[in-house]
Amino acid sequence: EWKGETTVVVLGASGDLAKKKTFPALFNLFKEGHLPEDLHIIGYARTKMSDDDFHSRQIGNIKGPGDDASQSDKDAHKKKLDKFTSISSYVAGQYDEDSGFQALLKELEKVESERGVEKPNRLFYMALPPSVFTIVAEGLKKNCYSTKGANRIIIEKPFGKDTDSCREMMSALKEQWSEDETYRIDHYLGKEMVKNVLLLRFGNVWLESSFNKNFISNVQITFKEPFGTEGRGGYFDEFGIIRDVCQNHLLQTLSLLTMERPVSFSSEDVRDEKVKVLRCIPSIAREDTLLGQYVGADGKPGYLEDDTVPKGSVCPTFAALTLWINNPRWEGVPFIMKAGKALNEAKVEIRIQYKDVTAGIFDDIARNELVIRIQPSEAIYMKFNTKTPGLITRAIPTELDLTYKSRFAEAKIPEAYEALILDAFKGDHSNFVRDDELDVAWKIFTPLLHWIDGKDGEAPKPEEYPYGSRGPKQIDEFTSKYGFKRSNEG
Ligand code: BG6
Prior knowledge:
Keywords: Carbohydrate metabolism, Glucose metabolism, NADP, Oxidoreductase. By secondary structure, the chain is an alpha/beta fold. It is 36% helix and 20% strand. The protein is built from 14 helices and 15 strands.
């Protein structure tokens, strides 16, 4: 674990990711005393700006205490913010020129010698577009690598667009940075409820013993966002919803949900098991797929009306995909991933639907369901049947409900990026994606993606759905085809 002597360099410091996620996460960790007191942060990007401009950009998205907070809370926040900016500086430079990285090195050496650091540790956070990942990783290695201390590099998707392009990118990075030095973020692995999955499974006898094909009928992992591409259409159209969230966020969640019990909780043991279960998943079949694209409704623009989207694009903004796991535990159980933009609500959840109770004594018994709500409002609840209170014997479906807001009202749930950045400081790889995990994840999706990209002939045309709806009208038929019963809802 890095105790002190650390400098964080945020590359792409003027960009959106840095502003929205990286700096607020660093600040919160710093404020709560999780980061070394003598930390220094350097922002690096192409935009020329003064340290002052950098500071206002850096803190622009940091949430302060609300208006009704006490004066002392407000003062304490302000004090921390001032301290945070005082330990942050900025260097402007190109991504493909040694001169920029030399200027960065000079700043690194300056701030390290000011703190009397002898063995500097350097954490490079790449909040950058993928087009410059490799060149920046090379520039950093060549110019800014600490030879006396340790170095770590954090990178984030997109890691290529299919198996081959990902391999190409990874092997270029590997020439410079070892697997041990590399931290590949999938920010879903930093979410509280995703981190909870292993504990729920392997810390509860009743749960783990029913977690298999004998008891479970089908599993759905759902990602719904109520907004469209909104100006991000250029990026989105190149990738589509499957690359944007299914191949990474939802598949990572699925692997934790289905892996076997690891030998220990160490990062390598956990990731070994994740890779093992992913290797049991054949590539997704076209017939197990439903694709959609939103059209304008109620004054909201359709996908193709976004100026940044190419005319006539058939890029899916919605996908329902069924995956199968060929191992003794899960054989024959459908795992349905559903993901979409511009839907009727914001929700990410795992819904595990159990099989029917054997017929015979009660009628109309709803199925048990275990729901893990990842966001918003973290919760775990079990749908189960009980006798309607009173003088009749009739079943009523109800819930055993653990809603975090009421049960853990005082707890602060950290942002995913906070959890992950702290892990990177600790040198804990558990919640980062290993190279072989990434490779097998791409294998599951690549044939389907090539078909969708039109590489095997004409690209399939997605079904239309109105902005703000539940998705294409075929969705219910799709999920019921895999055994999902909606009788539980409502
Ligand atoms: C990102 C995707 O990886 O995840 C976005 O690129 C998506 O399109 C986002 O909106 C969702 O993250 P979260 O944390 O808001 O669920």
